[in-house]
Design a protein that fits this description.
Layout: H1 3-33, H2 38-60, H3 64-95, E1 103-113, E2 128-131, H4 138-150, E3 154-157, H5 161-169, E4 175-179, H6 180-189, H7 191-194, E5 197-208, E6 223-230, E7 242-251, E8 256-261, E9 267-270, E10 275-278, H8 279-282, H9 287-298, E11 304-308, H10 310-319, E12 323-327, E13 331-332, E14 338-339, E15 342-346, H11 348-356, H12 365-383, H13 392-399, E16 403-405, H14 409-422, E17 427-432, E18 435-440, E19 450-455, H15 457-471
Parallel strand pairs: 2-3, 2-4, 6-11, 8-17
Antiparallel strand pairs: 1-4, 1-5, 6-7, 7-8, 9-10, 11-16, 12-15, 13-14, 18-19
Helix pairs in contact: 1-2, 1-3, 2-3, 3-13, 10-11, 10-13, 11-12
Length: about 475
Amino acid sequence: MSKKKKGQINFTKYLAIFLVIVSLIVLFLIYFIGVLPIEYFLVLSALIVIIDLINIKLLLVKSKIQNALGIFFSLILIIFMTIGITYELNTIDFLKQFGFNSYNTENYNIVVLKDNNIKELNDIKNKKIGHLNTDEHEGLNEATKRLKNKINYESVEIDDLTNLLNNLLDGNVQAIILEDAQLNIIEEENSEIYKKLEIIYQIDIEVEIEKIGSSVDVTKDPFNILISGIDTYGSITKVSRSDVNILISVNPNTNTILLTTIPRDYYVLLPKFNEYDKLTHAGIYGIETTVKAVEELLNTNINYYIKVNFTSLIDIVDAFDGITINSNYEFTSQDGYYFKKGENYLDGPKALSFARERKAFALGDRIRGENQEIILEALINKAMNPNMITKYTELLDALKDKFITNITDEEITKFIKKQIQENSKWNIETISLNGSDAYETTYTYKNTKLYVMEPNGESVLSAQEKIKKILN
């Protein structure tokens, strides 16, 4: 036998072995991910085995034409299966982020007045620094300790954000410690004072959070998920005001989803502190505080939560190649985007603008809540579209590190598997809580009355009954 012929035989033999190995890797990863129903997996396995056997036979018979066909089809198969392996590995990497996240990130700032010639940390050595109660806020307690390791200073505990600012303005303290979200509140509620402030140092603290929620069999048992959208870009672990709060009640037996939108300024009890505040302020104290406040308000148990931010929404919508929504109003947002009444195509930034806008409407937050439901419903419907498989990797990349959830990878794969198996059509209902305009003191801003929305008792009771009906 010539060396050339022997080399060709060895090549086809090794190609056949490589084809089998790649096929086994593909099947193992599909089984490991677990989103494909077992009957689909068995059919796919049988199909791959049959195709492999045909190609192996073509590769190993003593016929140049059949060998050439075997080489051609085997290489095509290997290329496609290698692409499939890439998809599978991306999926496994994506699923790693599901499950309980054990900490929040709090960013504390050393804040001074712009006109007092204090420009760096050493300028406030041995001076008075004001802050809120460290016993109530674990992150603040840790921040003051870390600051003590940097410089000596006299610690002055002040009971309220308003008094904290007044003490700085009056010169009773030379600096104060504020978390990013507290600075955002000052900017919103008192922009003139905010303009006088300057940050000279920042301390980032990771605060451990308690486990919340309770797992169920998501393929059989009804459950609640809270979508909490915070008003920041960047890291999703950061605490901030929760500007979007939508409770999703899901019944997998009736294929019904109820979206309940709660206005950001709803005046609710924060069980953690046993005091009332705007719901949006609950996010400052962590996702667990928001979850418990909504549970208290709607008299229901929340099994899961998903925390997202501005970056999340932009990237997800863009990964979908945009979404089409039907606006109930014609308006121009504060950041300059125009929306016509009726059908609108939205990319990521425009979708964020549509979801955030409230000042263009006389009813403000009520309309914003409706628009957020419209965005969420459009995303759910597009995600259920089988054509989205072509955008699979882009969607995974967009979602990676863009949300925090206590839903486990096992639960999400079981839910996807059920959807693939049944190809169910879901009925999506939406409701929004209503209320009346008022001014009240809040836990976060104790001595100053802020705008809040007083809950309408009938609206809350109606929502409680609808949620109970879905879950039952």
